[in-house]
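Protein modeling request. Please complete all fields; requests missing the sequence field cannot be processed.
Requester role: graduate student
Desired output: 3D structure, token encoding
Chains: 1
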Amino acid sequence: MLMAVMLPGMPTTYPARVSARLLLGAVLTVAGLALVSVAVLGWRGLLPRNRVAGVRTPASLRSDAAFRVANRVAAPPLGAAGVVCATGGALCFTTTGAVLAVIAGVTGAGTLTLVVAGGVLGNRAAEAVHDGASCAGCPASGCTVRG
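Delivered output (147 residues):
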């Protein structure tokens, strides 16, 4: 059964599947472009320390240097996640039915896996950064660096 959706200002009705497909494609494409943008800014060291975008763990937020390192290390997997997400979104515009569900599932799983991998790698890199301010709580036992 196809339901019809009336779009404001348009005299024509469209099947609900078409509008869902277009919405899913648009959301995935925009999310992919956002991930690629964050990855490029992180790679170039232009992403400012913030609580909205990038690797935001206690280790990465403790200093500007740790945030830069974390996001530079996380940039390749985040960029790949963005490409996967945007590609999946573009494919959603051209497919229907069960193929659309498979594409959405694979896109979501691939994107999530790559984003988590980037976050884990970025956090590990941030934990390894020694800002020199204090050795208290330093994860490197036997640290001889003095601030």
